[in-house]
Design goal:
The chain has 615 residues and is α+β, with helices and mostly antiparallel strands. Helices cover 30% and strands 27% of the residues. It has 16 helices and 29 strands. The strands form 6 sheets. Strands 1, 5, 6, 7, 8, 9, 10 and 11 form an 8-stranded mixed beta sheet that branches. The chain has an 8-stranded mixed beta sheet with strand order 12-21-29-28-27-22-24-26, with helices on both faces. Helix 1 packs across helix 4, helix 8 packs parallel to helix 9 and helix 13 runs parallel beside helix 14. The chain starts with 5 loop residues before the first strand and ends with a helix. This is Phospholipase D-like domain-containing protein. Pfam families: PLDc_2.
Length: 615
């Protein structure tokens, strides 16, 4: 083959990385052969040869079986002139006597801590250092290589993966016989450092793919990433000498948490008073822990003319039951340059004072257990959720449009409660991620949330559910919301989009995205944002009507605070995002700024639309 028909080039694959200290359990498993050997040694001392004759195994294999039992102190080795003699120790006798009934040796569990490095690729796949055949380059060394070799193609990296996914991390960081019990964040916890794997490639003229020269370098990588490497071509493939980088496609609907649940394990809560009743029920039924995240907190939700409100009286009862109660505050602190800073700061301090007074009232009643306010650190999240372990129905998460500790429950709200261990496990990790706001430093609350999450056993989805009782639920983070607009565009009959506020934000990502849909569109809002005037809304209404005759935009006569996307009969998304006033860019620092749940199931949208139209 002529040299001019082949091109050598290099692909640089970036990974987000960081080091974490893991708490690890290592279980030493024993086989039936181990048991039989220890049983024989409990009766007499034996040489390697006699054990080999007894088991019909080679002497080398016999030694390999016995050494682990020597390491844990169950067997001693006595050297003699002719051979090694093995004899059982006192610890070995105890181990054998404990296992006689089960005919199986008890497992030995060691607990220790290790610091290990985690790597995440573009597709959000996790790796350990053992996943790579060669050392990854630091960013500085990568830049040096770029300056030396102009024929390096660098793949992109998705910065929205900056928040670590601990369940994924645990599965790859454990070595043989290990179990990751927890991660102990000592300082910075985000995945922000970049390292690079360089893979040498060969391109043969006329081919559509490159060839990886050293397969060992990539054999432990995710198959999707390997395909992307092979599809990325070098410089001179195109006439203009530009690098041809294959388009990296991520399945935007492949979200981090997707569960299948029975309809009886999901509560749909519509209306302000129903949201209030559900919140009180969750507080009353809470066991172990209770986490309430409210964007805003109002004094009127803490105290009234008669003393503490129903919410806080029930929280006090939960504290008496030993429940660990956490209240997370979403609202950002006002900037000192803000013209309303003094008013906002004064209001916040008044709320903090009332919350401290509540804890003091608990102390005065002789209670040691009080509410943890996370040092009043703001999460900077607009999400609204409650997480607890319901005494009757188990672990659950409530996601809502309702500001639980600010609302007066006079407005229409939309909420969903999911009684599912896996969903709750993941939501606790979200609470841990956001509890410190924009700070990347660790906190006691974060560690406690991680502890709750790690104690929840991973459970498989129950797929044996009749279709009319099956609900598919997906977590929807801020930057994922508009991909559901694309799904809704496939509706056959109707699309309902309900928002609290409206401004000009939805024109391109929503109105333009849906104008080709053949379904009827109903866009409802409650009030306009402060920085849009009435004439702009009229103009937007007229423009929308002229571009899409199947659309209807207007203020709803009800006092609604709900944020919902529903289409046809079976697709429903309940969220904290104000569809008609908030943008949802792919900003990795704000992935948890808005949170919703998409539910697909028999008549879930139909039921919501029926309730909403009755208002």
């Amino acid at each position: 083959m002529n040299k001019e028909n082949t091109i050598k080039y290099t692909i640089a694959i970036p990974f987000l990385t960081n080091e974490y200290t893991f708490s690890i359990s290592r279980k030493t498993n024993w086989s039936i052969i181990d048991y039989l050997f220890l049983k024989e040694l409990s009766q007499r001392e034996m040489t390697v040869k006699s054990l080999s004759d007894f088991s019909n195994l080679e002497t080398q294999v016999v030694i390999q079986i016995l050494l682990p039992m020597c390491n844990v102190g169950w067997i001693d080795i006595v050297t003699s002139r002719d051979s090694f003699i093995f004899r059982i120790t006192e610890m070995g006798e105890i181990a054998y006597s404990l296992s006689v009934k089960e005919h199986e040796l008890i497992c030995k569990v060691d607990k220790y801590q290790r610091r290990r490095e985690v790597f995440v690729d573009y597709f959000d796949n996790y790796y350990s250092v053992y996943s790579f055949d060669s050392t990854l380059l630091t960013h500085a060394r990568y830049m040096t290589e770029i300056n030396k070799n102009k024929n390096i193609v660098t793949l992109p990296i998705d910065d929205s993966n900056s928040y670590p996914k601990y369940t994924k991390m645990y599965s790859v960081m454990a070595r043989e016989h290990e179990k990751i019990d927890n991660v102990r964040d000592e300082a910075v916890y985000t995945l922000t450092t970049k390292k690079y794997l360089l893979v040498d490639m060969l391109y043969i003229e006329g081919r559509k793919k490159g060839r990886i020269i050293d397969d060992n370098k990539v054999k432990k990588l995710n198959n999707k990433l390997i395909r992307q490497i092979e599809n990325t071509l070098p410089t001179i493939v195109k006439d203009d000498n530009s690098l041809l980088k294959a388009h990296l496609s991520k399945d935007e609907n492949n979200y981090e948490i997707k569960v299948v649940a029975k309809r009886g394990d999901v509560d749909f809560v519509y209306g302000g008073q129903n949201a209030k009743a559900k919140l009180i029920e969750l507080i009353q039924s809470s066991t172990d822990f209770l986490v309430i995240h409210s964007t805003f907190i109002g004094k009127w939700c803490i105290v009234n003319d008669d003393g503490y409100t129903h919410f806080f009286l029930e929280i006090k009862e939960a504290l008496k039951r030993g429940v660990q109660v956490y209240i997370l505050w979403g609202k950002s602190n006002a900037e000192e340059t803000d013209e309303n800073f003094e008013k906002s700061d004064s209001e916040d301090k008044a709320v903090e004072s009332k919350l401290r007074d509540f804890n003091e009232s608990c102390h005065q009643e002789g209670m040691l257990n009080v509410v943890n306010y996370n040092d009043f650190r703001r999460t900077d999240s607009h999400a609204k959720f409650v997480i607890t372990n319901h005494g009757d129905r188990g672990l659950c998460t409530m996601v809502s449009s309702c500001n639980f500790l600010y609302a007066k429950f006079e407005r229409f709200e939309a909420s969903v409660v999911v009684y599912n261990d896996q969903f709750t496990k993941y939501f606790l990790e979200i609470a841990a991620n956001i509890c410190c706001g924009k700070s990347t430093f660790d906190s006691k609350v974060r560690k406690e949330f991680r502890g709750f999450s790690s104690n929840i056993v991973d459970t498989p989805n129950d797929i044996n559910i009749p279709n009319n009782e099956k609900l598919e639920l997906r977590l929807v983070l801020k930057h994922q919301h508009h991909s559901y607009i694309d799904l809704a565009a496939q509706a056959k009959d109707r699309i309902y989009l309900i928002s609290d506020f409206i401004n000009t934000s939805p024109i391109r990502p929503i109105f333009d995205a849906l104008k080709e849909s053949e379904a009827k569109k109903y866009y409802y809002y409650s009030k306009k944002s402060s920085y849009i005037d009435h004439s702009e809304i009229v103009e937007m209404h007229d423009d929308l009507k002229s571009a899409d005759s199947l659309s209807q935009l207007g203020a709803h006569h009800s006092n609604s605070h709900a944020k919902v996307l529903a289409w046809d009969n079976n697709d429903l998304l309940i969220t904290s995002l104000n569809w008609l006033s908030a943008s949802a860019p792919n900003n990795f620092l704000e992935v948890y700024h808005e949170i919703g749940i998409y539910i697909k199931g028999w008549d879930v949208a139909k039921d919501f639309i029926k309730v909403f139209r009755s208002l």
